[in-house]
Design a protein that fits this description.
2 domains, seven-stranded mixed beta sheet, Dehydroquinate synthase-like, alpha domain, three-stranded antiparallel beta sheet, Rossmann fold
Length: about 325
C-alpha cells in the first residue's frame, strides 16, 4: 500500500492499495455517521459494487447510478443528481463518494462542490485514467454542447482511495486511455520514463504520476500559471475529442494532441530528428494510434471553444524535450505547422 499527501488549500491523502483492506482506516473516519450518496457508473456498479457495499456496511448509503460514457457529463444529469440529494434531504454534513471513471468523478465532484455550496467528497476512481490524473487536483466539470468541461469548479476531495484491483477488469481501450495520461506525465517530468510506462506496475506508476501532479497543483491549484503544463496534449486533444463526439477516449485524444504538439514544437524550437524520434517512441510505447482523422482547419475552429482561450490566443503547452515542456502564448490561427 502506498500513500501520498496532496498539499492544496485543503490537504488530503491518496491511498493506493490492491484491495479495499485500507478503506476502513483511510476513508471511514471521514464518512462515518454521514448520509452517503455513492454516485457510480454502470460499469463500476456491475463489477465492483458488491465489495464496496460490504466495506460500507452499517453506513447510511444511497447508491445512484449514472450511465457510462462522456455524454453523461451533462447539465441534465447534474441537475438530476443535485435534485436527488435535495429530495433525500442531504445536509451540509453529508457526503458524496464518486465511484467510477473520469466521467462520474468529474460529474459527482461538481455535484459535491455545489450542492449546498459544498459537501464532503471522497473519490474512488475505478479506471486507470481517473486514478492517475482526474481524481486528484480538484477539477470538477460537465460538458456543454459548445465543448468539453466548460462548466466546473475547483474543489478538493477529503480523500482519494485507489483500489488497483479494479484496473484488472478494464478493457484495452480504457487502459489505452489511462496510459495516454501516463505518457503525458512522462513528457512533463522525466521521473516517469519510457521503461516505467512500458513495464511499470500500476501502484508505482500511479504514485509517480500523482507525485508529479502534486508538485504542480501544490504550487498552482487554480491554474493561474504552472498548472497549465498538465494540459499538455489537451488543446488539440479536447478539440479532437469533441469533433469525434467523444467516440475516441480522452487519453487516446491526449496522445494524438501530444503528437500535434510535437509537430508544432519542431518548428518552435528546431528540435533535432533524433530527439523527435525518441518522443515518438515514447508516444507509441503502449501502441497508441497517432492518426488524426479530422481536417486541421476543423480542429483549429474547435479550439476557439476551448475554455483556456484568451481572446484569440491560447496558452499552448509545447514540448522542448522529454521531461521538459513550455507554456507558449500562441494565436489560435497559428497553431499550424
Ligand atoms: N488534468 C489536468 C489537471 O488536472 O490540471
Amino acid at each position: 500500500m502506498l500513500k501520498l499527501d496532496i498539499k492544496t488549500s485543503s490537504n488530503y491523502t491518496v491511498t493506493i492499495d490492491n484491495s479495499l483492506n485500507s478503506f476502513n482506516e483511510a476513508v471511514m473516519p471521514i464518512i462515518a455517521g454521514k448520509k452517503i450518496a455513492v454516485i457510480c457508473d454502470e460499469n463500476a456498479k456491475k463489477l465492483h459494487i458488491k465489495g464496496l457495499k460490504k466495506a460500507l456496511k452499517g453506513q447510511n448509503c444511497y447508491f445512484i447510478t449514472v450511465k457510462s460514457g462522456e455524454n453523461s457529463k451533462s447539465s441534465k444529469n447534474y441537475i438530476s443528481l443535485v435534485e436527488k440529494l435535495a429530495s433525500l434531504s442531504f445536509t451540509r454534513s453529508d457526503c458524496v463518494i464518486t465511484f467510477g471513471g473520469g466521467v462520474v468523478g468529474d460529474l459527482g465532484a461538481l455535484v459535491a462542490s455545489t450542492y449546498l455550496r459544498g459537501i464532503t467528497l471522497v473519490a474512488m476512481p475505478t479506471t486507470l485514467l481517473s486514478a492517475v490524473d482526474s481524481s486528484v487536483g480538484g477539477k470538477t466539470a460537465i460538458n456543454l454542447k459548445q465543448g468539453k468541461n466548460l462548466l466546473g469548479t475547483f474543489y478538493q476531495p477529503k480523500a482519494v482511495y485507489i483500489n488497483t484491483e479494479y484496473l484488472q477488469t478494464l478493457p484495452n481501450r480504457e487502459l489505452l486511455s489511462g496510459y495516454g495520461e501516463i505518457i503525458k506525465y512522462a513528457f512533463i517530468d522525466a521521473s516517469v520514463n519510457y521503461y516505467d510506462v512500458k513495464y511499470g506496475n500500476y501502484e508505482t506508476l500511479i504514485y509517480k504520476c500523482l507525485k508529479i501532479k502534486n508538485a504542480v497543483v501544490s504550487k498552482d491549484e487554480k491554474e493561474g500559471g504552472l498548472r497549465k503544463i498538465l494540459n499538455l496534449g489537451h488543446t488539440f486533444g479536447h478539440a479532437i475529442e469533441s469533433l469525434s463526439s467523444y467516440s475516441i477516449s480522452h487519453g487516446e485524444c491526449v496522445v494524438k494532441g501530444i503528437k500535434l504538439a510535437i509537430e508544432l514544437s519542431k518548428s518552435l524550437y528546431n528540435l533535432d530528428a533524433q530527439k523527435v524520434e525518441e518522443m515518438y517512441n515514447l508516444l507509441t510505447v503502449k501502441g497508441h494510434n497517432l492518426d488524426v482523422d479530422f481536417k486541421m482547419e476543423d480542429v483549429i475552429k474547435q479550439i476557439y471553444n476551448d475554455k483556456k482561450r484568451q481572446k484569440n490566443s491560447i496558452s499552448f503547452i509545447a514540448v522542448k524535450d522529454i521531461g521538459k515542456v513550455e507554456i507558449e502564448n500562441i494565436l489560435i490561427e497559428n497553431l499550424t505547422f
